[in-house]
UniProtKB/TrEMBL annotation:
Protein name: RING-type E3 ubiquitin transferase
Alphabetic keyword roster: ATP-binding, Kinase, Membrane, Nucleotide-binding, Serine/threonine-protein kinase, Transferase, Transmembrane, Transmembrane helix, Ubl conjugation pathway
Stretches that traverse the bilayer: 232-252
Domain of life: Eukaryota
Catalysed reactions, as listed in the record: S-ubiquitinyl-[E2 ubiquitin-conjugating enzyme]-L-cysteine + [acceptor protein]-L-lysine = [E2 ubiquitin-conjugating enzyme]-L-cysteine + N(6)-ubiquitinyl-[acceptor protein]-L-lysine
Phylogenetic classification of the source organism: Eukaryota, Viridiplantae, Streptophyta, Embryophyta, Tracheophyta
Annotated ATP binding sites: K72
Family: Belongs to the protein kinase superfamily.
Length: 254
């Protein structure tokens, strides 16, 4: 019990640190971002389809101000996922790019994130459907996806004053809107790179491994230092999956 209380206290301090940083930040001056409260959030009855289930919470489809949205809600009575919740706000509340998901707003009372709804699923589903239908994704579509993700990573890695590393690039986090334009999502473990090595490489040192197995940079696994190269490695794996007719796990296992 003592260890559990210590862990909760530590997570609470981390939560307060993120929250104070965001409230002091001018990140939202130039973009439209809305803070919701309990009274103007959809009720459980107003949220229809469950779009996805995650470790820390679920994503639901809803309508706010006559606009279809996707709402990610953390599981109640848990601190798990709170740092990721705050990091998502810190990152997506600061940037806009045509190939990055749009974070419309957030509600701290319910630990909910409100995004523009993307109806056409994710790249993982497309790749999975290819196993039975090789026409599911044309080569021109693959090329377009590759160019879009390249553009997005170049944008993130050149953000000033601190580059952003996504840290969890994988097919499940590449989503598609109604026009099949791909959008990079899930910035919960993204990081602003602040530290500089002697070689001039911006990086972020972590105590715990982040990201998804199979897409993690081996150098990061060895040093626990995140750099923009970590995203480039994951991008290479995603492109390998896109350019192969092999099932995803076959490629990842080599």
């Amino acid at each position: 019990m003592c260890n559990e209380n210590t862990a909760l206290t530590k997570m609470g301090k981390e939560h307060d640190k993120f929250r104070n940083w965001i409230e002091r930040s001018d990140s939202y001056v130039d973009i439209k971002f809305k803070w919701f409260n309990h009274s103007n959030m959809p009720t459980n009855d107003q949220m229809s389809d469950c779009l996805g289930e995650g470790t820390y919470g679920n994503v639901y489809k809803a309508v706010i101000d006559n606009t279809e949205v996707a709402i990610k809600i953390l599981k109640p009575n848990t601190w798990q996922g709170v740092p990721e919740f705050e990091q998502e706000i810190a990152t997506l509340g600061k940037i806009r790019h045509p190939n990055v998901v749009t974070l419309i707003g957030a509600c701290r009372e319910e630990h909910a994130l409100v995004y523009k709804y993307l109806p056409n699923g994710n790249l993982q589903k497309l790749l999975k459907s290819e196993e039975t239908n090789k026409e599911a994704l044309s080569w021109s579509e693959r090329t377009k996806i590759a160019a879009s993700i390249c553009s997005t990573l170049a944008f993130l890695h050149n953000t000033k004053p601190n580059p952003i590393v996504h840290a969890d690039l994988k097919p499940e986090n590449i989503l598609f809107d109604s026009d099949n334009v791909c959008k990079l999502g899930d910035f919960g473990i993204s990081r602003f790179l602040k530290d500089t090595t002697e070689t001039g490489t911006v990086m972020h040192e972590t105590k715990l491994f982040k990201g998804s197995s199979g897409y993690r940079d081996p150098e990061y696994e060895k040093t626990r230092i995140l750099t923009c190269k970590s995203d480039v490695y994951a991008f290479g794996i995603v492109m390998l999956l896109c350019s192969s007719w092999l099932p995803g796990m076959t490629v990842l296992k080599g």
